[in-house]
Design a protein that fits this description.
Layout (H helix, E strand, L loop, with lengths): L3 H10 L4 E4 L45 H4 L2 H9 L2 E4 L6 E6 L2 H10 L4 E4 L4 E6 L5 E5 L2 E4 L5 E2 L13 H6 L29 H16 L5 H16 L7 H13 L4 H14 L3
Antiparallel strand pairs: 1-2, 2-8, 3-5, 3-7, 4-5, 6-7
Helix pairs in contact: 6-7, 6-8, 7-9
């Protein structure tokens, strides 16, 4: 019998935001539209395609502590196929220092204070109290998983949990590159009138945060990434009247921080609304 759904439900009831993972550790798309990314979602599961789910169903944003969601028919098929349980560390106010090899573990033992430790297939997870931004590859074999990220649940671990140390805070700092100063751009907010699929403002907030991350982490093809992200946001939130000027401003600010001009942002937004018939 697959004990994963039962374990996940118990973790959710204890306050850990959980989600099902595939054999390759990737999250599922948690609705029929998004199953196997048939909705057009990105392979990293961070940015969904058109989706009218009543809750987020991609990646870390889908993690939840709501037993009614974890045990719902909506998630049942994914749990039956799941090979592991994922969780959102930042949602539980913890940070996972993912040490992927013996050299990374030796570094941690020399530079980090002891805390709750969990053995992994190739290394260890050191879990600290407190959330920080997530950054992969802060050192060779060292990833930081917390906000807007997910980790695999491998058990409660051993040892008392301690606070995120200064060293980790320093590791996740990123010096901002010289970019043009973002300009305020006036664009029309999509008119409402469609059915609102959002259960709470958290759904929209997570969607905007995921979109900001998608833009800010783009390493190439920024024009295309910005357009695809605008298209995804409008697909999910553009017809129900939930988007505000503040939300759009956040997306434009993220795009301009990557070097996009105000004009390119406006054109990308206009093209996306046109493509969706808005």
């Amino acid at each position: 019998m697959n004990s994963i759904p039962t374990t996940a439900l118990g973790l959710a009831e204890q306050g850990l935001p959980v989600l099902p993972l595939q054999a390759d550790k990737r999250p599922f798309g948690l609705c029929r539209t998004c199953d196997d990314l048939t909705c057009g979602g990105r392979p990293n599961m961070r940015i969904p395609g058109p989706c009218a789910c009543p809750w987020p169903c991609h990646g870390w944003a889908a993690a939840t502590t709501d037993p009614a969601v974890v045990g719902s028919p909506q998630w049942a098929a994914a749990w039956r196929r799941a090979r592991a349980i994922g969780y959102h560390p930042g949602g539980a106010d913890v940070t996972v220092v993912d040490l992927d090899n013996p050299t990374a573990i030796d570094w941690a033992r020399e530079n980090l204070p002891p805390t709750t430790t969990v053995a992994t297939t190739r290394g260890e997870h050191w879990i600290y109290r407190g959330a920080v931004r997530s950054v992969n590859g802060v050192r060779e074999g060292v990833d930081i998983k917390s906000l807007m990220s997910y980790a695999r649940w491998l058990g409660p671990g051993t040892g008392p949990m301690t606070d995120v140390p200064v060293v980790v805070h320093e590791l996740v700092k990123v010096k901002p590159a010289a970019r043009p100063v973002p300009r305020a751009v006036a664009v029309p907010v999509p008119a409402g009138g469609g059915r609102c699929p959002h259960r709470s403002p958290v759904y929209l907030e997570r969607g905007i945060a995921m979109a900001e991350q998608r833009i800010s982490t783009a390493t190439s093809g920024v024009h295309a990434v910005v357009y695809a992200t605008f298209l995804a946001v409008l697909s999910a939130h553009g017809r129900c009247g939930c988007l505000t000027e503040a939300h759009i401003g956040r997306l434009f600010t993220a795009a301009q921080a990557k070097g996009e001009s105000a004009r390119h942002c406006t054109d990308a937004w206009s093209n996306a609304t046109t493509a969706l018939g808005m």
